[in-house]
Every structure is written in structure tokens, then in C-alpha cells.
């Protein structure tokens, strides 16, 4: 497992690791996140093992733009207005899945749904453009425990783990951050699942 400082070199390195089926820990606009290629079942399973996450809880995905979101999900005109109001930003929206051909089943929710977010964080947006694929993502913690915001704690927690990420990008300690809000747009009324 390698640890490198955040910067353009880290973006390139992370893209290579993810393209080759690896798992990276990367800072985001909310909390540190585990990232993997959303189409790579093995890499996503590795995140579930590291996090001790129940397989019944699918991972949301990051995409680079609305066009990429539309490739994955059915998005109505009304939904698009809501998305454009909150993206890029700290909102994950649950939408009806359109195309699952290049996605692991571990990112697909029950009733054929998918959680999608466009982040607002330069290095992560650069990474998404470079890799040009949806990335499965989830906060860095053990399931049910609080997110870990201090980089030294992240390194200490996961470096000695039997299941560990391939790469950690050190973006320093993240301050006062919470995971994204989750809003379900699949029903008649929009429903906030996490504030």
C-alpha cells in the first residue's frame, strides 16, 4: 500500500490504480472516500471487505457530469432541474437505473436504482475526467462507525489490515465535513434519506 500527497501526480497515479482494478482512499468535497471502478466487481468487493459493509447496501457512484449521469440513469426534465440545482455538490440522488451493462451489481439498489453524485472538488473532478468512468464510492470508515477525517488515523487504521486499499492519497485532515445528503427521486415525491 502506497501513500502519496494530493496533487496532479496523485490524480494520475490513482487513475492507473483504479483502471487496473485497485482501490484507493481519496479526499472528496465531504469526507475521505474509498474509490473503485464501478464496473470492477472484484475491486468493489474489496471495498465491502475493508469496510465490513453489508452486501445489501449498494455503493453510490461518482460521475464527471450530467451527460455521464444520463448514461446510467433515467432522468426526466423535472429531475434534471433538481440535479442541476445541487450538482456539482454534496448531494447523492437515487435514480432509476437505465444501463447496467458496465456496472457491478454491488452499485445497483433494489428496484433497479442507483445513487449518483457529481462532486465539487478539483482533484476528484480531474480524476473523474481522466478515468472517464463512474467510480463506486463510500466514506472511509468501518460500517456503522464514524467517518475518519484525520489522515494519520486513516493510514494507521488501514495499513495493517489484511484487506487494505492499494493507495491512500494524503489531502491532510478534513475539517467539519459530513457525508453527502441522500435524496431519492424515484417516487412521486422526492424523499430525503440522509441529511
Percentage of residues in helical conformation: 25-40%
Q: H/E order of the elements?
A: EHEEHEHEHEEHEHEEE
Low-confidence stretches: none
The secondary structure category is: alpha/beta
Mean pLDDT: 93
Strand content: 15-25%
The major pleated sheet works out as: 11 strands, mixed
Calculate Rg over CA atoms.
16 Å
Q: Could you give the count of β-strands?
A: 11
Structural summary, described in words:
This protein is an alpha/beta fold. Helices cover 30% and strands 23% of the residues. The chain contains 6 helices and 11 strands. Strands 1, 2, 3, 4, 5, 6, 7, 8, 9, 10 and 11 form an 11-stranded mixed beta sheet that branches. Strand 10 and strand 11 form a beta hairpin. The longest helix is centred in the first third of the chain and has 12 residues, at 8-19.
Key phrases:
single chain, 195 residues, alpha/beta, eleven-stranded mixed beta sheet, 6 helices, 11 strands, 30% helix, 23% strand
Secondary structure elements and pairings:
Layout: E1 2-5, H1 8-19, E2 24-26, E3 33-37, H2 41-51, E4 61-62, H3 66-72, E5 73-74, H4 77-86, E6 91-97, E7 113-117, H5 122-131, E8 135-139, H6 151-159, E9 167-170, E10 181-184, E11 191-194
Parallel strand pairs: 1-9, 2-9, 4-7, 6-10
Antiparallel strand pairs: 2-3, 3-8, 4-8, 5-6, 6-7, 10-11
Helix pairs in contact: 1-5
